[in-house]
C-alpha cells in the first residue's frame, strides 16, 4: 500500500542536470509477520482482586485454605495458607512453594492472581486446585504452553514510483519502529542495492542519522522499489518508511 507525495524543493543531480526535484516515496505494510513467534509458558489467571481486604488475616477467606499445584507433570505440591496478612505475604508464601518452576504475581490493572510456569513450550503445563484456588477463582483446567512458531523470514514492502525516473538517495525508517526491524535488502526492479547479504538494523536509517546518503539505481516508470524487511518481534507489526530521492524533468 504505497503512499505518494510530491516535494517542493529544487535539487541538482550528480551529473549537473538542472530542473530536478526531490520527491519522497512512501512504503507501508500494516502487518509484517514476525520471524518467529516465541514459545509461551502455561498460565492461569484468577478472578478475584488480591487487594480485597476480606481475604487476609485470621478468619479471612484464605485462612486455612489449601492449594494443590501440578507443574510440568511433576508430583503435586500441596500446602495450606495460614492467615496471610496481606498480598505481599500471600505471594511470598505461594512462590516459596512453587518456585522456581512457576511464579505467582499480580496482574496489572485487575490485581488478579497470575500463575505462570518458568518453562515454555508445549511441555510446560500447570494445574491448580484446592479451596484456595476456588476462593480466588483460579480456573481448574489444565493450562499448557505453546511451542515457538517460525514465521516469514523476510517480507518485501513494495512501492512504485509514478515518475518518469526516480533515484533514491535517503532511506528514513521512523525511530519508533526501527528497533523492531532488520533490513535484508533494497531492490530496484530485480537488482539488489546491498554490497552483501548481511542484515542491517533498521535503526541505521532513523531520522537524524548521519552518513547514510544513498545512491540507488534509477527506477523508471512503473518499476518497483522494494525494502526487504524482517520483523524481529513476536507479533505482526506495521512497517513504514520513506525513500527521498531525485526525479529529473
State the shape.
Answer: elongated
| SS class | mainly beta
Total strand count, please?
Answer: 20
Rg is 28 Å
Low-confidence stretches: 1-18
Distance from first to last alpha carbon? 26 Å
Largest sheet: 6 strands, antiparallel
Q: Which class of the largest domain in CATH terms? A: Mainly Beta
Q: Give average pLDDT, whole number.
A: 90
Q: How many separate helices? A: 3
Note the beta-strand portion.
35-45%
Order of helices and strands: EEEEEEEHEEEHEEEEHEEEEEE
Number of domains: 2
CATH architecture of the largest domain: Sandwich
CATH topology of the largest domain: Jelly Rolls
Percent of residues in helices comes to under 10%
Detailed description of the structure:
- The protein is 8% helix and 42% strand.
- It has 249 residues and is mainly β.
- The chain folds into two domains: 3-36 and 152-248, Jelly Rolls; 39-144, Alpha-Beta Plaits.
- Strands 1, 2, 3, 14, 18 and 20 form a six-stranded antiparallel sheet that branches. Strands 13, 15, 16, 17 and 19 form a five-stranded antiparallel sheet that branches. A four-stranded antiparallel sheet has the order 7-6-10-11.
- The protein is elongated and about 85 Å long.
- The chain starts with a strand and ends with a strand.
- The model is unreliable at 1-18 (pLDDT under 50).
Topology:
Blueprint: E1 3-4, E2 10-11, E3 20-32, E4 36-37, E5 41-45, E6 66-71, E7 77-80, H1 87-98, E8 102-106, E9 113-120, E10 125-129, H2 131-135, E11 143-144, E12 149-150, E13 155-160, E14 165-172, H3 175-178, E15 181-188, E16 191-192, E17 200-201, E18 218-220, E19 224-231, E20 237-248
